[in-house]
Write a structure and sequence with these properties.
Rossmann fold, two-stranded antiparallel sheet, eight-stranded mixed β-sheet, 366 residues, Fungal_lipase-type, alpha/beta, globular, 15 helices
Length: 366
Amino acid sequence: MAKLWLLSLAFGIGIAPFLFAVPLQKAKGTTDSRKWLAEHMDEMITEMDLAKAYGAPYDLVEQTLNKRRKMLRKTANGTSRNIGPKNAKDAAYDHKMIRHKIFPMAAASYGDTENVKNCIRNTFRNATLYRNSVVQCNGKAYELCSAFTAVSHEDKAIILSFRGTDTGYQLIEETIQIALFKRSQSPDEEWGKVGSYFLKIFNQLVDEGKIIDDLAKLVNTYNDYEIWVTGHSLGGAMAAIASATIVDAKLISAQRLKLVTFGQPRTGNGEWATAMDKKVGPFNYRVVNNRDLVPHMPPLWFEGYRHHMTEVFYNNAKNKTEEFVICADEAESDECAGKYWFYNVRDHLNYFGKSVSEWGEKGCAN
């Protein structure tokens, strides 16, 4: 009986925390959702809770889950992916630049146009907002998705930032959409497949928000500038798809593209992840904060979803945000976020000591 329970737990643990970590009713708005999360985020299930509730030794629970994780990695597409430390060698991770320039742009996307302008003003010495594009996600008035384009002349960079999941209900919507619908095709057959929910919203922002048209105009005007693409949570998934689109459309060379996401969910299958590793360029980083649950979703066993490289893991148990590990040998490494099987919402909502969305809505004021 104990073995049967442990096998069931190992199979189901990937989806359960995600479903119960958010309110199970339609949120009235962003403020209500955040209030609920603030009140309940400390009630997330932990290893000790499981051991106590079911009478299983703590070490046995962790050991069993780790065995299942390794089995899933080995059976994914026939083998576990290991393409070597290309990214770490070719483009050194710059903590200060990402913390103080790219991360504020990911946070800024949660604000309205005035908030975005304030974030840009508080981050750069010579930068301007080009456009803040807002659409109704899948045509639903209670869900807003957005992205903005900006230019930092000091850095010679064109910036594209995507808004992340902003309400508890939207988080549930993402889970349901991913669970019910098959993956969609990404830019072309060579890119594998990505989640249909991510691709639908991205295409909305392309068609209605004109984000790729805007990028093309900016690249034409500032033809010696780089492109920085970023986003938090759902925004991270769309940032990855955008980067693939930019490279595939040859808007700019992969060497002049910087992709940095925060708390990005698994966005596509193994073919997608491999294509991202090979084509998007050396400056391609997924930043993960400690026990953030979203990077572990969808689970490895579901529809073949996989992460692309390169993970930068901040284990903030000691609140030292400058301490990080770069896992350049594997996308799902035990040296980074893969060491955990139990996650929480708090680490997803907070990066570098900031509540990502609230900080962005306050104009990124320190």
